[in-house]
């Protein structure tokens, strides 16, 4: 952390790093569960390749698929058969939820990407992400079409056409049997019926990270604090030295009927730089490390999955250095650090460093802002 004089000296540097930097001054400002995540809701013990979190490309023999898939699903997924129009259970469904590949569990579409179509098959105008669905030319039956395949297992899903609605103009014409559908109301419940979950993240200065997540729909509370160190009940000044081993973090409590780990992590990797070791812009030290503190194996696997995906897609020029650390204890920071941006919007630091991050978040996640 920095003194007021140091902050002024670094002001020029902060401008250059305004989308990543996260310096603070130590001046005190007066203040006027265990869970089951959405991604693991489906279990298919007869199919060892099925996973809602693992995005690793599969290389499974046709003979093996025949052993683990039902005859109807095998016919569509591996032999590119097509179910008869208007017979699939999902073609006219408007229930809110998520669509997964029925063969391997890969997430394909969300219900808000689906539209009413008269073709007799489930139709979508956009896929979940650029790797969820892949394509190849299909010249069968004397027609020239684009076949749509699962991006993880290469299973046949349907075809892609250019007669869909805006904004993409695409129509993903899918077979119902090739997809598993999980309604939000089912996904949202864990075994105790509680819909609130927690995740602890470190992305540099907790003032910035807190301000971003406070605006995400579904987030109930964000608390700034410390995790990952060796001292119990550390103070702000002790953590500033960089000798306690703690990272500045935020504890996010969210309603899993409105958001999920996947979205929480997407925001996380959008609003900070996960490729700089022990620093964010002008802030240097282990207390500024990019870190995900997982409370259970589900959170760890989900975090590792998205990191692997981002690295494989080379989203960043450099490899991600975000650490995955077990959450042993979260310590709340002093009261004057809570809701810092909301309480100090007119401060130069808030306007020059935090505000640009908020603007970036609001632009990318425009449809997911709290009303």
From TrEMBL:
What domain of life does the UniProt record list for this protein's source?
Answer: Bacteria
Its required cofactor(s), as named, are: Zn(2+)
Report a single Gene Ontology molecular function.
metal ion binding
An annotated GO BP = response to oxidative stress
Q: Which UniProt keywords apply?
A: Metal-binding, Multifunctional enzyme, Oxidoreductase, Signal, Zinc
Is Kinase given among the entry's keywords?
no
Q: Which residues form the MsrB domain?
A: 62-184
Pfam families the UniProt entry points to: PMSR, SelR
**SUPFAM superfamilies of this UniProt entry?**
Mss4-like, Peptide methionine sulfoxide reductase
The record's Gene3D superfamilies line, in alphabetical order, gives: Peptide methionine sulfoxide reductase (2.170.150.20), Peptide methionine sulphoxide reductase MsrA (3.30.1060.10)
Which positions carry the signal peptide feature in this UniProt record? Answer: 1-23
Enzyme nomenclature, EC number: 1.8.4.11
Which reactions are catalysed by this chain?
[thioredoxin]-disulfide + L-methionine + H2O = L-methionine (S)-S-oxide + [thioredoxin]-dithiol; L-methionyl-[protein] + [thioredoxin]-disulfide + H2O = L-methionyl-(R)-S-oxide-[protein] + [thioredoxin]-dithiol; L-methionyl-[protein] + [thioredoxin]-disulfide + H2O = L-methionyl-(S)-S-oxide-[protein] + [thioredoxin]-dithiol
Task: Enumerate the InterPro entries for this protein.
Answer: Met_Sox_Rdtase_MsrA_dom, Met_Sox_Rdtase_MsrA_sf, Met_Sox_Rdtase_MsrB_dom, Mss4-like_sf
Q: Which residues are responsible for catalysis?
A: 205
Annotated function: Has an important function as a repair enzyme for proteins that have been inactivated by oxidation. Catalyzes the reversible oxidation-reduction of methionine sulfoxide in proteins to methionine.
Family that this chain belongs to: Belongs to the MsrB Met sulfoxide reductase family. Belongs to the MsrA Met sulfoxide reductase family.
State what protein this is by name. Peptide methionine sulfoxide reductase MsrA
| Source organism per UniProt | Flavobacterium cellulosilyticum
User: What lineage does UniProt assign to this protein's organism?
Assistant: Bacteria, Pseudomonadati, Bacteroidota, Flavobacteriia, Flavobacteriales
**Gene from which this protein is expressed:** msrA
